């Protein structure tokens, strides 16, 4: 019998409390991971508040987990006890359907979310399908790398999936937990990067992260001057924006890609799509192979999340800090 010590919300919007639960026998193809650190994501807040209508309580959040493999089920051969791995938004898929077999395991109809119907990484241990535990490359710090497993792959995947070229001009809307990683990825990819932000105080920091240009989106005249410039614009925000302004900023055949979970319909004028054959698309997370590729890219180019650390027992203080919009740029909980 394995006892897990965690922090859980007993109902929507409630503070997290110490919570203990048991894990049954480990199944074939599964592993247990002793948590070293766990990033905190806005998706954790959405699940805690049941914003998406699928939360189950008590809810243990946490889907940016780094830890050591402590047990392996039958048939697990690619991971060993003591190895440092990470687990992101997904913790399982069927691995046999056409979608999985074609390399899109994150789109499997039987995919299992790390904090959907199961307990996540605000705990001292998690259990996951071994296929979704990705070994952490040398050079990445297990105390801070957790955000790469959700925020990182979320902005890395569209660069690959939408065929963004090193010669492209790309804009990033929203320089927070996702956006500050997108800027670093695109700079290392070879792109000319523009950061769209409402915060002028981030200007020098954004330049150090790799932004070639910074545009304050509160200045409508500045946006109008960008007509036809961008091969792609990646939006990381979860609020509605004047999308037609960004469509205008796209070059012919340009793409507006959203990775932010905007809950209301996006107002996209058809004429802006037709003129110049522009497109609007979305992107979610990534397959295990995509996560591994992203981690290798980070290690090669020395890309790391900018993080603020809290002890796991201070989880409610960390949540309040994130909810207040004060995090720069990702909050990470450390086990004690």
Secondary structure topology:
Blueprint: E1 2-8, E2 17-23, E3 30-40, H1 42-48, E4 65-72, E5 84-87, E6 90-92, H2 98-101, E7 112-113, E8 125-129, E9 134-135, H3 151-161, E10 169-173, H4 179-189, E11 192-197, H5 203-209, E12 213-216, H6 220-224, E13 230-235, H7 243-249, E14 250-258, H8 270-274, E15 279-282, H9 288-301, E16 307-311, H10 315-323, E17 330-334
Account of the protein in words:
There is one protein chain. This protein has 336 residues and is an alpha/beta fold. It folds into 2 domains: 2-150 and 286-334, Medium-chain alcohol dehydrogenases, catalytic domain (Quinone Oxidoreductase, Chain A, domain 1, Alpha-Beta Complex); 152-282, Rossmann fold (3-Layer(aba) Sandwich). Helix content is 24%, strand content 28%. The chain is built from 10 helices and 17 strands. It has helices at 42-48, 98-101, 151-161, 179-189, 203-209, 220-224, 243-249, 270-274, 288-301, 315-323; strands spanning 2-8, 17-23, 30-40, 65-72, 84-87, 90-92, 112-113, 125-129, 134-135, 169-173, 192-197, 213-216, 230-235, 250-258, 279-282, 307-311, 330-334. The strands form 4 sheets. Strands 3, 4, 5, 8, 9, 16 and 17 form a 7-stranded mixed sheet that branches. Helix 3 (151-161) crosses helix 4 (179-189). The radius of gyration is 20 Å and the shape is globular. The chain starts with a strand and ends with a strand.
């Amino acid at each position: 019998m394995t006892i897990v010590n965690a922090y859980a919300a007993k109902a929507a919007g409630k503070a997290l409390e110490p919570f203990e639960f048991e894990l049954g026998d480990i199944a074939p193809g599964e592993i247990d991971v002793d948590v070293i650190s766990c990033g905190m994501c806005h998706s954790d807040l959405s699940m805690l508040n049941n914003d998406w209508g699928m939360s189950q309580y008590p809810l243990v959040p946490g889907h940016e987990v780094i830890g050591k493999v402590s047990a392996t089920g039958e048939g697990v051969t690619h991971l060993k006890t003591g190895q440092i791995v990470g687990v992101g938004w997904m913790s399982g898929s069927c691995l046999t359907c056409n979608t999985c077999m074609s390399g899109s395991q994150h789109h499997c109809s039987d995919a299992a979310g790390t904090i959907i119907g199961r307990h996540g990484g605000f705990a001292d241990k998690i259990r996951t399908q071994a296929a979704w535990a990705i070994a952490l490359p040398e050079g990445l710090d297990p105390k801070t790398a957790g955000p790469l497993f959700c925020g990182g792959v979320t902005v890395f995947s569209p660069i690959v999936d939408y065929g963004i070229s090193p010669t492209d001009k790309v804009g990033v809307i929203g320089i927070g937990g996702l956006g500050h990683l997108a800027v670093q990825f695109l700079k290392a990819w070879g792109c000319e990067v523009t950061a769209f932000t409402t915060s002028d105080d981030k200007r020098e920091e954004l330049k150090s992260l790799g932004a070639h240009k910074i545009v304050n989106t509160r200045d409508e005249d500045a946006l109008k001057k960008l007509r036809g410039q961008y091969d792609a614009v990646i939006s990381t925000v979860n609020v509605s924006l004047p999308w037609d302004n960004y469509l205008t900023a796209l070059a012919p055949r340009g793409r507006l890609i959203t990775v932010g979970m905007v809950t209301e319909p996006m107002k996209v004028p058809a004429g802006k799509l037709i003129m110049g054959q522009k497109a609007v698309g979305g992107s979610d997370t990534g397959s295990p192979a995509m996560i591994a590729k992203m981690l290798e890219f980070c290690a090669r180019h020395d890309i790391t999340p900018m993080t603020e650390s809290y002890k796991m027992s201070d989880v409610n203080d960390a949540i309040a800090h994130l909810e207040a919009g004060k995090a720069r740029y990702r909050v990470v909980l450390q086990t004690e």
